[in-house]
Amino acid sequence: MNYTRFRALLIDIDDTIVRMKRGVTLATSQHADHWSGSLLEVMQIAGEQLGGLPATEVAERIARTKKEVRWWQMADFIKALGLDSDRFWQFAFETEVSYLEPTGSEIEPALERLRSAGIKLYITSNNPNTSILHKLRLAGIRDTSLFVQLLGASELRAMKWEPVFWEKALAHVGLEAREVAVVGDNPRDDYEVPRDAGLTHSFLIDRSRDRSAENSAAVTYVRDFSKIADCLLGVVSGKKPESQSGIA
Questions:
Q1: What is the pLDDT of residues 79-103, one digit of tens each?
Q2: Whether the predicted pLDDT of 108 surpasses 90
Q3: How far apart are CA 7 and CA 174, in angstroms?
Q4: Does residue 76 sit in the same domain as residue 125?
Q5: Statement to judge: residues 43 and 118 lie in one domain
Q6: Could you tell me which of 216, 217, 175, 168 has the C-alpha nearest to residue 193?
Q7: How crowded is the C-beta side of 54, counted as CA atoms within 13 Å?
Q8: Of residues 179, 166, 177, 169, the one with CA closest to residue 232
Q9: Is 199 among the domain residues?
Q10: Closest Cα partner for 111 from 241, 228, 240?
Q11: 199-240: pLDDT as tens digits
Q12: Could you give the number of structural domains in the chain?
């Protein structure tokens, strides 16, 4: 497999860069059906504690905003509840840092290696961009200049399980599909759907076990981001070859 053809990565965030802490379950954390929806629950709490509104009023305003604004941003809820934006985001961080964490300590160094080599990095997510920035902070990644662009669902007006999301993402990158790879943890959203949209390769991260025996021309299973960097930069047994031609 020639990985050096890849000049850009479309990187997922939920369960790829940030995850629920080990030992924390949905039952004990009392969050939504999927943990990435917990930020709206934080909004509910903030409306009560920071906004001084009754719980029923907060819930009604959140529901009304979701109904009225198809591709909502967190700012829409902040406005609807009359909250101060800076206070809300600090409150959200202090709340969610107790149960969300980075998936690994190698992420930022690996991304820095890739960017230094000229690989263009993008975040792709069903979150809006402000939520992506929030989760990058929770993952300890404050240098958002690592990424050329954040491609959130509200910005692209599509969800990752729709091929059009990936078609729009590829248009933002401005490279041929064969030069762009997807990074994620979800076989459907980060492999099957992007492949239907013309993207030919995905790196699927499974930190629990070695699945390299399942690798193919279309998918590479890795344990962490360091392995992705090794693949793209042509590193063999921890040593870089003299020439890394093909990397733009």
A1: 999 999 999 999 999 999 998 999 9
A2: yes
A3: 11
A4: no
A5: no
A6: 168
A7: 3
A8: 179
A9: yes
A10: 228
A11: 999 999 999 999 999 999 999 999 999 999 999 998 754 444
A12: 2
Whose structure tokens read 């490279």? Answer: 175
What's the chain's length in residues? 248
- Please tell me whether residues 144 and 198 are part of one structural domain: yes
Q: How far apart are CA 222 and CA 104, in angstroms?
A: 13
Contact 100, 138 (CB under 8 A): yes
Q: What pLDDT is recorded for position 35?
A: 43
**Structure confidence at residue 22 as a pLDDT band (50, 70, 90):** confident
- Strands (E) in the chain, as ranges, are 8-11, 18-20, 100-102, 120-125, 149-152, 180-184, 202-205, 219-222
pLDDT band at residue 114 using 50, 70 and 90 as cut-offs: very high
Give the tokens for residue 208: 């629990």
- DSSP of 95-135, one letter per residue? HHTTTEEES-TTHHHHHHHHHHTT-EEEEEESS-HHHHHHH
Q: What percent of the chain is predicted at pLDDT more than 90?
A: 83
